[in-house]
Every structure is written in C-alpha cells, then in structure tokens.
Amino acid sequence: MTHRAHLSTALVLGLTLWHHTATAQDCSCDHQIDPGTTSFDGIDNGVKPGDRVCVMAGKREFLRFQHMQGSESARIEIINCGGLVEIHNDTRAYALVFEDESHHFHVSGTGDPSIEYGFKISAPAKDPYPGIGLWLLGKSTNYEADHMEIFDTGFAGVSAKTDPICDGSADQDKFIQKDADLHHLYVHDTGGEGFYVGST
C-alpha cells in the first residue's frame, strides 16, 4: 500500500469517527444507544435524573428500556439522534417498550428538526401474541411520549397500562399510574386499539 493510500484510509477513518462524535455532541447526549442495542437498563448504565439518552438513527428489531428512573424536577430525556429511528418487529409482541418501574421520563422524536416523527414504529405480529407499537408497562408512570409514527400493529398502537400482578404490587393501594402525557403521535392502521390507556 502506498503512502497516499495510507493517508486516504486514515483520513476517511478520521472523518468517520469525527462525524460519529459530532453527531452525538450535537444531540448533547449523556448516553448513546447504537442500532445494534435492543435492551437498555437505566440502573446498569448509570442513568441519572436529568440525563439525556440518545437513540441513534437506524433500523432495529426492538428496543426495551428498563428502570428509566428520573425525578419530578429532573426527567430523563430520550430522543432520536442523527435522523430517523425505525423499529420494526414482526416476530414478537412489542417494538418500543418501557418497563420495570420506569418513571419521570420523556421520550420524543424531536431530535432531528427536519423530521416530524423521529421514531417510526411497527409491530405487525399476530401470533402467538398480537404486536404493540409503544408499550409502557411494569408499573411505569409519570411519562411523556411524542412525535412518533406508530402503525401496522397486530393489536394496539400504544398500550400505556400496568395489568394486575400476582404478587399484588400493582394493586390500587400499592401503585397508581398517573401523568401519562401522550401527544403528537401519528397512530394508524392498527389491528385493535389505537390507544389502550389504563388498566381496567
């Protein structure tokens, strides 16, 4: 390989790394989730109230968030970064999930001002369980979700509820879901509910 070829390779590699770093910096990320990651635990990853978690643009089969625990005065922000985040799962009953007592967080598709809905989510599976696009469960509460397109789901576009749990920890005297703010969501072509909010 010639000296010029070495230089060109180094330049391309350097520009690629610079672009990747610049994109993350432009989004003011405290934490970054690359397209190859399908599960992210807030406790395990040291996410603190007030942190910004960037979901990097690209395609994924699903993305599950656990223990995203902000506070009333400092919510955790979760945004798309670098363009459109596409989540398409045709083999499971979920696409984008928040669970395990996640609370005081805001997930928004406003990370790229050129895209109205920065998250594009579909979960067309019908068997063995029909798919849900945005699923907020597991005693999750005090959250906001906006600027997503959710479509082609086996069942609900959005399911925001915690069903009863055998240990009784989700009973009325133990857990109350509140302050669920769902807006600027383009939900269409669902197999069942558009929005299924609150357990009956």
Please count the helical segments. Answer: 1
List the helices and strands in order: HEEEEEEEEEEEEE
Shape: globular
Task: Tell me, rounded to a whole number, the average pLDDT.
Answer: 90
Helix content: 10-25%
If you had to describe this structure to a student in words, what would you say it looks like?
There is one protein chain. The protein has one domain (30-197). It has one helix at residues 3-26, and strands spanning 31-33, 39-41, 52-60, 63-66, 76-88, 94-99, 103-108, 119-123, 132-136, 141-153, 158-160, 180-190, 195-197. It contains one helix and 13 strands. The model is unreliable at 6-25 (pLDDT under 50).
Summarize the helices and strands and which ones pair or pack:
Elements: H1 3-26, E1 31-33, E2 39-41, E3 52-60, E4 63-66, E5 76-88, E6 94-99, E7 103-108, E8 119-123, E9 132-136, E10 141-153, E11 158-160, E12 180-190, E13 195-197
Task: Offer a few descriptive terms.
200 residues, mainly beta, globular
